[in-house]
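Complex record, two chains
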Amino acid sequence: MKIFDDKMAPNPRRVRIFLAEKGIAVPYEQVAIMKGEHKTPAHRARNALEQLPVLELDDGSHIAESVAICRYFEELQPDPPLLGRTPKEKATIEMWQRQVEFNLYMPVAQTFRHTHPAMGALETQIKEWGELNRERATKAVHWLDAGLAGKDFITGPHFSIADITAMCAIDFGRIWRFAIPDSCANVKRWHQSVAARPSAQA
Amino acid sequence: MKIFDDKMAPNPRRVRIFLAEKGIAVPYEQVAIMKGEHKTPAHRARNALEQLPVLELDDGSHIAESVAICRYFEELQPDPPLLGRTPKEKATIEMWQRQVEFNLYMPVAQTFRHTHPAMGALETQIKEWGELNRERATKAVHWLDAGLAGKDFITGPHFSIADITAMCAIDFGRIWRFAIPDSCANVKRWHQSVAARPSAQA
């Protein structure tokens, strides 16, 4: 078993943090997106969509998509639970994971892709779409701030995959100088707490 | 327990099909997006992001996000399994669900939002982004066609949530005259099969 990883990209980081929280060690092999290594026939055979990370199982099959890879390890080793235990917990965590992904993570990524000079050669950039997403990302942090009121973590008293997705989104946003607004005190407090966990360095 | 639904929107349909496949009956209450009913204080209290569907539990709490609602019912009643049984099945189905959602469903929805006259009053339309997504949706159907080669359903021999997401995407695309290209024979065959299931009428 191994994971095809890119230390520079935000999606692989989600899986590395998840596994660090679980205390699971998996060998990583680097595939450098900025060098175009994800577009080689070898990587396309693992994931026709040319994305990272990809988990390779011992039977030679491949699981792509960060959250699907996390699901695999959660099912193999439920403790500590990062996707919930009861039906209600599982559904609530999946709700937050998706809401954070669609409303914060994706706008942060779209702003990078559509406005950052480094992406000009890799992406059909539509500046107006990038700027709309810059606004959406800021709006989403305010939404998250309301959601974190009176809570240690996004889904309640326990750290979950939703916290991983949100932290990776905010940290990735630094590439286009995104910063948590001073008015979002709950997000600031929460980010200090999750960034101080050893897993954040994974 | 009840589900806030909109018979006209594609996301609520995903949940209705899922529950029909499970044979689970839940009362529905209509919230008409085209009449702006999702923006009322009553609905915002259920989901601050103003989206549908939303599941209301008997304790008064709310679960938003179609896939999270499906997860809740899968956990309550695993049979027939639509999210997988073993760790590998669950991860593989989640991979396909996400890939179909990001590469097909979202481009179909973005094309509608950014090019359709009916959405002009509700959305900041960026035509160039809409047209890029029109191309992406077509490209995604070809990708799906390759993925369906030699398989009855997207994730293998069994119907799963990935089939629901893909069918809802393709059917929703009709609103901007999206059609499965003749060259995508696997998708045509698969669509005929899934559209003929009684759940497709839910």
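Note: The first strand of chain A starts at residue 2 and ends at 5.
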